[in-house]
Amino acid sequence: MAAPNIDQDGLRWGYKRSRLFGKDPLWTREPEMSAIESSVRQELHLNPDEVCNVSFMAEGALNKLYAIEAQGHQDCVLRVSLPVDPVHKTAREVATLRFLESKSSLPVPRVILYSTDRKDIGFEWILMTRLPGTSLRDKWRHTSLQAKNNIARRLAGYQAELFDLRFHGIGGLREEEAKAENVESVTDGLVERRFVVNRIGSVEFFYDDHIRRDVPRGPYVSSEEWLQARLDLFIGDQDRIIERGPNDQDTSDEDHKEERSDGKSMPNTDEHNVVLTPIISEQEKTHTSADVKGQSNGEHCSGDLSEADDEDDDIDEEDVRDARWLKNLATILRNQVVWLAFSDVSESEPEPSMLYHQDLHEGNILIDASGEMTGIVDWECVSASPLWAACQKPKLLEGRSREECPDRDTYGDYNPDAWGGQGPDPKEKDSDGKGITYWEHLEEHEQTVMSKTFFEEMEQRCPSWTIMYRGSLMRRNLSGAIDLMEGRFRGPFEVDQWCRAVRRGCCDDDLEARLQADREDREVDHGPTMDEIEGSWEVWKDLRNAQDAVLARALQN
């Protein structure tokens, strides 16, 4: 199927600094401040003599934010977006914010105006109210644990609200006029708004050339359909590497599946467990680096953005070998593990779903001077997710469990000359005399306390949510496994081991526990803490190289 003709003028996918982390969405031109001011004046019906100040605020991965101060109007924010998914992404975000404003108590921006035609500013934009407060990330070290616990309780209350605002089907929201079974109607004054589950809005569906791939984009009837579409995209990425690389290896690819009684594919089995060819040989493991490269060669580029015009580096045999291994692993997930996770689910009607903010970290939570939450932002890629995927703790509370509060006096002091004056943590200016390790451990402890508060509150407010959370470990692990595959770092090796455990019948094997145990083992086995080596950037790089060498030897055993 030919790639669809999608107008993405203004967008280019390339590399900002390092090919290790994959491509970034880049602006081929900047939005002009004069054009923004002219459009805002026109849309707000301002006279030439009325004040309209436009100033740059911040930049996200997919957008630029501008503060708008217009005479006679509330302070606003204009979000100018890259055309990663033209028209659809803006329409989804507007529908999501309007739904939340109409149906929930969540503190979200109110949409004032929006445009998808790109004729004035050159990009799509949304004009919305500016919420008060500062990001929790900027105030984290100066916010009390009591205030943070209150935030955890508030987040639990919002989760309970969203749990009761059900949809049917998986995908992004869209305002529609036509009636359908998956419609929520809201009366806003004299305007009746209908919100339907429609095309998916997750980043993986428009990343790089994914927007042109021939895969279903929703609304999905079931979790199985949704996860298989994600894996199809990942498998396509590996096929692209294989096709571009040396073609001197065996290209046979078997799906290892047979028919279920209902006509759908199911994994081959013997009398004990699922049987597959080996995922990767012991010899190949020595050549697959700790940071599995995927589409990049894992090397750092120190040049400027002009280097981003270049195509991916030449694909060599090692890249092709890695891609074949990753494709094999993704195929196992798609054809076997997904089926095992949802074999008991009927697909006779669309699966229940709820809105889920998958990126609810401290940078997207606003607080006032007293630590009270004032807003939740960044809803641009939010979709209606299946309940099992949405019933989990916010990203803010993710992290290693640390029950004991770290003793400040046992940690090293902050060294202002460390790292050649370029510390890896921007929060070091708020070090309060202590090195980064102390603050990391304190944050882990506070997250652990907040997580307990969050789950206690969820148990009281919405017991059904906690039942769903406790009963969906394997499915959450499966979704996490796909996330790790897309990340292309050490994750695929842990996914490999988790897959093997699941295929042996250990469906309660916890992938996250494996990852945490692995992190702890590497901390013990691989030398000093960050505090002990803060005096030298070169020492840190040597340590990382040593860790990679230890990992490579471990993979041989």
Automatic annotation (TrEMBL):
Annotated protein name in UniProt: Aminoglycoside phosphotransferase domain-containing protein
Annotated InterPro entries: AGP_Transferase, Aminoglycoside_PTrfase, Kinase-like_dom_sf
Transmembrane segments: none
Compositional bias segments (type: Basic and acidic residues): 254-273, 401-411
Coiled-coil region: none
Record organism: Knufia fluminis
Lineage, highest ranks first: Eukaryota, Fungi, Dikarya, Ascomycota, Pezizomycotina
Aminoglycoside phosphotransferase domain: residues covered: 56-166, 322-388
Acidic residues biased stretches: 306-315
Pfam families, per database record: APH
Spans annotated as Disordered: 242-315, 401-434
